[in-house]
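Weekly modeling sync, notes
Attendees: AB, CL, MP (scribe)

Item 1: holo prediction request
CL wants a bound-state model with zinc ion before deciding which constructs to order. AB pointed out that an apo prediction alone won't tell us much about the pocket. Agreed to run with the ligand included and paste results into these notes for async review.

Input as submitted:
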Amino acid sequence: MKANQPAIGIDLGGTNVRAAVVDASGSVLSSYRQPLGAKRDPQSVLDLVCQAAHQAMAQAATPAEELVGVGIGVAAQLRGSSGMVAVAPNLGWREVPFGAMVAKDLGRSVRVVNDLEAICWGEVAFGAAHGFRDVLVVFVGTGVGGGLVLDGQLYQGASGVAAEIGHVKVFPSGRNCGCGGTDCLEAYLGGANLSRRLREEAEAGWSELMTLAKADPAAIHPGLVEQLHAQGDPRAKQLWSELAELFGTVLANSVTLLNPSALVLGGTVLSGCPRLLDLSLVVLRRQALAVALETLTIKPASLGDTAGVIGAADLARKDN
Ligand SMILES: [Zn+2]
């Protein structure tokens, strides 16, 4: 009976927290979102998370005692299923027992997963990958993240950081990544790092890019390169083909290694740069093992920005 009751899903990203009450069919009954603000210490963020959860519960007609659990997706590397946040670069946290803190505050058991794992589970349970049992989800937004479902189950790996596809190494040029390392895929392709590189290149003489940004370096983002690419700009073409080679090869190697039935792609950089995505898929199809490609379905993510709360709530429901 409990398996059919609504649960609370929370998505704690780098800039916002969203909480929602989600029913067993993946429908969002109520949703509350607020920005994190400048104070990012664990206690301040805990207060915002619990506030958001209480707001979502108040807006839903469901009595609190009928909610079966709380699931949270956090933009962080976690230690297994302990609820311990090992590293959360956007929040500046290391070794924060966030799951226990939220459980104490809300008085409920809490399932903590990585934000992309929550999105991945949402897309598999109710979205683009519904009906597929072996699924890799890759999002390219501010950062680059992945989630993995194998044989119908969320696969988290021995220490909880499986599918951290943004941090596979791609090219030894020394570009810095938010994880503290260098040369990661995210150092090249993640929206924050890519925009930084574009600003550097615009200021060093890529005049077409600077002109498109109306001479405001802060206005430079990957979508402008996409526009230049459409106009035939040679630097845009070169950059997109370089990044497509990196991204497509990582996707191809992942497909060869895992042989998933579905690859779901999403995130603001990919949705804003369809040419970059298409070029990457050409590389993927060239580089992946042919027999693995025969059974692969490639789809765009379909749940939008509620995938995380939907997936987190469903994972919490499964625990009960
Ligand atoms: Zn990294």
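Recorded for review: The first strand starts at residue 7 and ends at 12.
Action items: CL to compare against the apo run; MP to circulate these notes.
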